[in-house]
Amino acid sequence: MIHEKTVSEAIAYRRSVRIFDADKPIDREKVKSCIEQATLAPNSSNLQLWEFYHVTSTSMLKKIAPYCFNQNAAKTAQQLVVVVVRKDLWRHRAKANLNFIDSVFGANTPKADQSSREKVARSYYGKLIPFAYSDFLGLFGLLRYILILITGLFRPIYREVRKSDMRIVAHKSAGLAAQTFMLSMAAVGYDTCPMEGSDTWRIKRALGLPLGAEINMVIGCGIRTERGVYGERFRILFESVYKQI
Predict the structure, then answer these.
(1) Considering 139, 165, 191, which residue would you say is the last residue of a domain?
(2) Helix, strand or coil for residue 56?
(3) Mean pLDDT (whole number) for 14-27
(4) pLDDT tens, residue by residue, 175-227
(5) What residue ranges in the chain does DSSP mark as E strands?
C-alpha cells in the first residue's frame, strides 16, 4: 500500500518525468480521482471553464503521441490527461452558479426580501459576468476597454476586460487545475509531465472538441523510470525572486 504524501512531500516529489515505465501500469480510477480533486482548484469567478479528457485507450494514446511530436513523455505515457479551456461555456457555467444560488437562498425570494449577499451574487452572475464575457469579433471587448480606461482615470478598476484578456483568465484557471491534478498524482506516487509542445489543432480534432474549446496542456501520466527525470532539479536562487515589501 502506497503511503499518501503530505502536500510538502508531494511538491518535493513532483518532477516533470520524461520516460515512464512500460511495465508499471497505473490505476485509471486513481487518476480519475486526482482529476476530481483538480476540479476543486481555485478559478476565476467560480465559472470552472475547463474540461478534462482522460485518455486511457491504447489506440488514442498512439494517435496523440505524434501530435505531441513524439516526446518521450507522450510516447511512454500509460495515460494522458488533456486539460481543455471552455471559455465558450461561460453562459452555461454562470447559469449553473445562479441555480446554486437558488438552491441556497430560494428561487423566488422577492427582491425586497433578498439579503445583500444574495443581491450581490445574483447581480454578479446575472449582469457582471455577461458584461465581462459577451463579445462579438472583439468589438465588445474593445468598447469595454475604452470604458475602463476612462473610468480608471478617476478610481482603481479592473482593467483586463478585452477578449484576449478573458482568454488569459480562463487559461490561468485551467493551469491552476492542472497543477492541482499533478500534485494529487504525486501524493499517491504517480508521475506526470505537462507538455505544451503539441499540435493542438490535431489533438482537438482527435478528441472531437468544438471550435470554441482550447487545449491548455497535455499531461503524460505513469510511473517514472530511473532515466525518467532528466537530471537534478534547478531553480533560480530564491533570494533573486522573493521580494518582501
Answers:
(1) 165
(2) coil
(3) 97
(4) 999 999 999 999 999 999 999 999 999 999 999 999 999 999 999 999 999 99
(5) 50-55, 79-85, 191-195, 214-222
| Helix, strand, coil percentages, rounded to 5, for the chain | 50, 10, 35
Other beta carbons less than 10 A from residue 46's beta carbon: 14
For residue 171, CA distances in Å to 75, 119, 146, 180, 214 come to: 25, 29, 24, 14, 9
Residue 155 clears pLDDT 60, i.e. is over it: yes
Residue 242 lies in a domain: no
95 and 133 share a domain?
yes
Q: Which residues on neighbouring strands pair with residue 85, listed in sequence order?
A: 50, 214
User: Which of 117, 135, 165 marks a domain boundary?
Assistant: 165
Are residues 31 and 61 both part of a single domain?
Answer: yes
Q: Which amino acid, 73?
A: A
pTM score above 0.90 = yes
Amino acid code (one letter) for 199: D
Three-class SS state of 181: helix
Dump pLDDT digits (tens) for 52-66.
Answer: 999 999 999 999 999
Cα-based torsion angle of the residue sequence 97, 101, 103, 104 in order, rounded to the nearest 10 degrees: 140
Q: Could you tell me the residue range of the domain that residue 218 belongs to?
A: 7-37+50-84+177-230
Summarize pLDDT for 84-101 with one digit per residue, the tens. 999 999 999 999 999 999
Residue written as cell 478610481?
A: 155
